Predict the 3D structure of the following.
Amino acid sequence: MIITIDGPAAAGKGTLAQKLAQKYGLAYFDTGMVYRAVGLDLILHNINPESEQNALAIARGLTFSKMIELSKHPEFRSDIGGQAASKVAALASVRAELLKMQQDFAVNPSFADGKKANGVVYDGRDTGTVVCPNADIKLFVTATAEVRAMRRYKEYLDKGFASSFDEVLSQTRERDIRDSSRTSAPLKPADDAVIIDTSDMSIDEVFNNVCQLIDKKY
Ligand code: DC
C-alpha cells in the first residue's frame, strides 16, 4: 500500500505519516529531507541555495546515507535549513534529479533495520501529484497559517532554537508563497486527494478519521 500525504509546512503531516506507518507496517519517507539535505550541503559550502548549477551538482551526488548524515546537523530542521530547502525545491532541474531517489523507495520498501515493509507512507508537497500519482490513498493535510506557525514555534522552543511567534508566522507565510507559486510541482492537492483541515482537530482525531478511511477501502 502506498499512502501520500501532502500539504504546507507544519500542517501535521509528519506525525500523521509516522502513526500510519506504524499501524499498517509501512516504511516512512519524509521527502522534505532530500531538499533539506541539498540546501544544507550548499549552506555548509557557503553557496547560495538559489545557485542552480551548484544545487544540481549536489543533488546528483545525493545518496540515502549522505542525507541521513546531513540530517544530524543542528541546522537541518531549523528555519535556516527550511528556507534553503524551499529555495532549492523551486529549481525544476533539481526536482527532476531528486525524483528517482524518491520513486525508487517504493519499489522495495524497507525499514531502517533492512526488514521488508508492506509499502510506504510518503510525506511532502508533491508526493500525490508527481512522486506517486498511482498511490492507493492520497491525503492533503492543511491548517491555517496561524495554527501552523504556533505548532512550529512550540517545536522550535522545545528544540532550543531562538525565535518569536511573529517571526515564525512570517517565515511560514514566506515559505507557503514560495512553495505554492513555483512553476515546477507547486504545492496543490491531487485531484483525487482527500483534503483534511487540522486547524481544529487533535492529532488523534485526524489519525482516527484517516484510519477509518483506509479500513473502509481495504
Ligand atoms: O516538509 P519540509 O518542511 O521538511 O520541506 C522542506 C522544503 O522542501 C519545503 O519548503 C518545500 C520542499 N519540499 C518540496 O518541494 N517537495 C516535497 N515533496 C517535500 C518538500
